[in-house]
Specification:
It is a single chain. The protein is an alpha/beta fold and about 650 residues long. It has a domain of about 130 residues: ANL, C-terminal domain (GMP Synthetase, Chain A, domain 3, 2-Layer Sandwich), CATH 3.30.300.30. It is about 30% helix and about 20% strand. The chain is built from 20 helices and 31 strands. Strands 6-5-18-17-19-20-21 form a seven-stranded mixed sheet, with helices on both faces. A five-stranded parallel sheet has the order 8-7-9-12-13, sandwiched between helices. Helix 7 crosses helix 8, helix 13 crosses helix 15 and helix 17 crosses helix 18. The longest helix has 17 residues. The protein is globular. It starts with 20 loop residues before the first helix and ends with a helix. Bound molecules: 5'-O-[(S)-ethoxy(hydroxy)phosphoryl]adenosine.
């Protein structure tokens, strides 16, 4: 991160969408005044506010102290005892929800499975007994490397039931990535499957685990769920079939009362140094904030069928596929496979087939849908949808408008939710019945969350001035530390700006106080002394009708310090040429000013992304600077994208 100079904001967006009256009338929070009242009250006493939300959770023993804050270490609901699996399952069984669908799952080949709360409870209890039988105890770690099948949620809830800490490893990671995570976490057991389906192909998960497990001395047992029935190698004594173990146990397993600060899960994110960071989340605070935000931000109702398209391997899947929704007794839709299998309309066909009401997805997916074309959503009835959400990257206003018009038909509010693996739950987002939305901004923090935009020395910046996005008061679902490395936790999040958690993002607040995320501060481009965030320049490019997606990076320039290099993908079927490059430069100059005009523009079929869909500007920066990519590419989703860009360079 460089000096104290702030980031300049150049984007202007004035379209405002108030919540539709009929939506607001039925929402949990019905007006902006009501949101404001909640927010102001919570800001005066965040502890009292969160204690009230925690009352919605079932506690075996109530807490003594709401918050113990020993910066930067937090303990929430100290002395309390609870169990998240109990909160997600058992407490619904004494209500009418007993026979409500908890999970409706569709496999990529097309089969559908439904699990009611009672059925899910039974499976979870059995699998908890399986884990116990294999010697897993409270406090042990279990790694889960599975396709997106209900058994992944079952395994998570089973771990939570007995107090084992799970670490879910996304099914796209390599054997080396599994080995590093399993060894760092000290996992005793790996739960996997023979394979999983992706775009019509089988991914042989068990083979990958075999390669990893040989280098994981602590792993005593590997449990294999049968998904594809393909042939797998077998290590007797270590490997067990899920279905065989499940036959050996009873379906009764009491949920263990756990301390509020008991470790629920570790989720690894890639650090800049290559060594993955194990983000640690605990129990009482995590479930209080995810359950509250799920209900209020998603305006969740019992009648809804809700679909968050994230893989469970990411934090979004933990908080808003599994724990947040099930704690609220929701019906969750889950889909195993790719959005373009067997055809580009798969998502829209499923929304129609299952009459999905709430859709929560990522800007990267929305930009892909735009590229594929409107004819695919047009083939299906999307009238069941009532709310749309996004998370993961800044959403370009153009993509927001497309989502609003083509998918939401102008009827559905959009919640642009800002948060991180580290924050555990949503931090900044509209309340859909209350907050007027503007394309491209996550709007305002949820009640109980105190965020600000400041300079390097911690002073608030003025309206529309860019700066560092910080969190100023501990929040219940915050990470507690990095697994086994308190020092790195302090250094990474609490050392840049005095008394603040610094999230790594640049942002500005507009004249309404709305927060605009301007991109990662590591990606800021310095043109002739003007510091520009990537999001604004990219949004200007994407607002041109020919552009589907854009990434901009800085490369050294003798005259200006840095020049702007843009990588651009075009809408379906369009071809790039010199004329279009000129048109795009002129367009950016018109939208935000000559200063932000890209010096180089390169057309490409695809941008390099992480496996969770974020553009990897670091690699593009390297490419634009040196013409090649030598840095770490292990988190890259598709290596061929970089190879292709590199060839174009030569
Ligand atoms: C970015 C995902 C703009 C941001 C839950 C953050 C966003 C990082 C938004 C965390 C949003 C996430 N608008 N940027 N609505 N949501 N980000 O850990 O840079 O995968 O710091 O967590 O994604 O990504 P992570």
């Amino acid at each position: 991160m460089s000096d104290s100079s702030s980031i300049e904001s150049v984007l202007h967006e004035s379209r405002m969408f108030p919540p539709p009256a009929d939506f607001a009338a039925n929402a949990h929070v019905k007006s902006f005044e009501e949101y404001k009242r909640l927010y102001d009250e919570a800001a005066k006493d965040p502890e009292a506010f969160w204690a009230k939300q925690a009352e919605e959770i079932h506690w075996f023993k109530k807490w003594d102290t709401v918050l113990e804050w020993n910066e930067p270490f937090a303990k929430w609901f100290v002395g309390g005892e609870l169990n998240i699996s109990y909160n997600c399952l058992d407490r619904h069984l004494t209500t009418w929800r007993k026979n409500k669908a908890a999970i409706i799952w569709e496999g990529e080949p097309g089969e559908v499975r439904t699990l009611t709360y009672l059925q899910l409870h039974r499976q979870v209890s059995k699998f908890a007994n399986v884990l116990k039988k294999l010697g897993v105890e409270t406090g042990d770690r279990v790694a889960l490397y599975m396709p997106l099948v209900p058994e992944l949620a079952i395994a998570m809830l089973a771990c939570a039931r007995i107090g084992a800490t799970h670490t879910v490893i996304f099914g796209g990671f390599s054997a080396d990535a599994i080995r590093d995570r399993v060894n760092d976490g000290g996992c005793k057991v790996i739960v996997t499957a023979d394979g999983g389906y992706r775009r019509g192909n089988e991914i042989k998960l068990k083979d990958i685990v075999d390669r990893a497990a040989d280098q994981c001395p602590g792993v005593e047992n590997v449990i294999v769920f049968r998904r594809t029935s393909s042939k797998v190698a077998w290590k007797h004594g270590r490997d067990h079939w899920w279905h065989e173990l499940m036959e050996t146990v009873v379906d009764d397993c009491a949920a263990e009362p756990l301390d509020s600060e008991h470790p629920l899960f570790i989720l690894y994110t890639s650090g800049t140094t290559g060594k993955p960071k194990g983000i640690l989340h605990t129990t009482g605070g995590y479930i209080s904030q995810t359950a509250y935000s799920m209900k209020m931000v998603m305006d969740l109702k019992d009648e809804d069928i809700y679909w968050c398209t994230a893989d469970i391997g990411w934090v979004t899947g933990h908080s808003y596929v599994v724990y947040g929704p099930l704690a609220n007794g929701a019906t969750v839709f889950m889909y195993e496979g790719a959005p373009n299998f067997p055809d580009f309309d798969r998502f829209w066909a499923m929304i129609d087939r299952h009459k999905i009401n709430i859709l929560y997805t990522a800007p990267t997916a929305i930009r892909a849908f735009i590229k594929w074309g409107e004819q695919y959503p047009a083939k299906h009835d999307l009238s069941s949808l009532r709310l749309l959400g996004t998370v993961g990257e800044p959403i370009n206003p153009e993509a927001w408008m497309w989502y609003h018009e083509v998918i939401g038909k102008g009827r559905c509010p959009i919640i642009d939710t800002w948060w991180q693996t580290e924050t555990g739950g949503i931090m900044i987002s509209p309340f859909p019945g209350a907050t007027p939305t503007v394309p491209g901004t996550a709007t305002l923090p949820i009640p109980g969350i105190i965020v600000d935009v400041v300079t390097k020395s911690g002073d608030p910046v003025g309206p529309n001035e860019g700066g560092y996005l910080v969190i100023k008061h501990p929040w219940p679902s915050m990470l507690r530390t990095l697994w086994g490395d308190d020092e790195r936790y302090k250094q990474t999040y609490w050392s840049d700006i005095p008394n603040c958690y610094f999230a790594g993002d640049g942002a500005r607040r507009d004249e309404n106080g709305y927060f605009w995320i301007m991109g990662r501060v590591d990606d800021v481009i310095n043109v002739s002394g003007h510091r520009l965030g990537t999001a604004e320049v990219e949004s200007a490019l994407v607002s041109h009708e020919a552009v589907a997606e854009a990434a901009v990076v800085g490369r050294p320039d003798d005259l200006k310090g840095q020049a702007i290099a843009a990588f651009v993908t075009l809408e379906g079927g369009r071809k790039g040429n010199e004329e279009l490059k000129e048109a795009l430069r002129a367009h950016v100059a018109k939208e935000i000013g000559a200063l932000a005009k890209p010096d180089d523009i390169r057309f490409t079929d695809a941008l390099p992304k992480t496996r969770s869909g974020k553009i990897m500007r670091r690699l593009l920066r390297e490419l634009a600077t040196s013409g090649t990519v030598a840095g770490d590419v292990t988190t890259l989703e598709d290596l061929s994208v970089i190879e292709k860009l590199r060839e174009d360079e030569e």
